[in-house]
């Protein structure tokens, strides 16, 4: 029995139809490709190892259960993880058996591409293909957006949008989309975010960029920017 279809926002990007999913995944149906960014698996272990706040060590399972549901719904031949899949290089080696046992079946039977991130630049012993970036025409998939790039899909910034109205504001993770690039939201459970009206993302995204807010369903709005 097929998995139920998850809520999506359909967008046209560089002549192709993509689905921005409520989970923060990006589905390219024509290429049978699913893309996620910034899983940050092992964050609770890394924080404990470095003497930081103690967090419940369940974020890996929660993240992978959502990824399992997205894979079941979209049936991709290729999964692209856009970097910072692990919270640091040691987190992959320290991955607990329960989390690893959830990850390996997801990887089985499909091409699994690990893009190097700034948190996890080293090789990963879990298998898959390890690349600095991945090109599948017309798109290039990389961790950090490059100025002047075209048809680029990237992560890194964990964008979130802050909207105000009726005396209160809401903040949600979001995709950012303009004519040249898509910046993905962070997929991992224990991930913060960077407000898209801040200088880094305001400078990166072209005028007229949209924010696709995660929710059921995802909703597209003009990208919030600070008044000049």
Write a compact overview of the structure shown:
With 228 residues, the chain is of the alpha/beta class. The protein has helices spanning 43-49, 59-74, 89-93, 97-107, 199-204, and strands spanning 8-13, 16-21, 26-28, 33-36, 78-81, 111-115, 129-131, 134-136, 139-141, 152-154, 159-165, 168-177, 181-183, 194-195, 210-213, 219-222.
If you had to describe this structure to a student in words, what would you say it looks like?
By secondary structure, this protein is of the alpha/beta class. It has a single domain, classed as Purple Acid Phosphatase, chain A, domain 2. The protein contains five helices and 16 strands. The longest helix is centred in the first third of the chain and has 16 residues, at 59-74.
Topology (SSEs and partners):
Elements: E1 8-13, E2 16-21, E3 26-28, E4 33-36, H1 43-49, H2 59-74, E5 78-81, H3 89-93, H4 97-107, E6 111-115, E7 129-131, E8 134-136, E9 139-141, E10 152-154, E11 159-165, E12 168-177, E13 181-183, E14 194-195, H5 199-204, E15 210-213, E16 219-222
Parallel strand pairs: 4-5, 5-6, 6-7, 9-10, 10-13, 11-14
Antiparallel strand pairs: 1-2, 2-3, 3-4, 8-9, 11-12, 12-13, 12-15, 15-16
Helix pairs in contact: 2-4
The secondary-structure class comes to alpha/beta
**Overall mean confidence score, pLDDT:** 86
Helix content: 10-25%
Helices and strands, in order, run as EEEEHHEHHEEEEEEEEEHEE
Total individual domains: 1
pLDDT < 50 runs, ≥5 residues: 46-51
The third-level CATH topology is Purple Acid Phosphatase, chain A, domain 2
Q: Identify the CATH class.
A: Alpha Beta
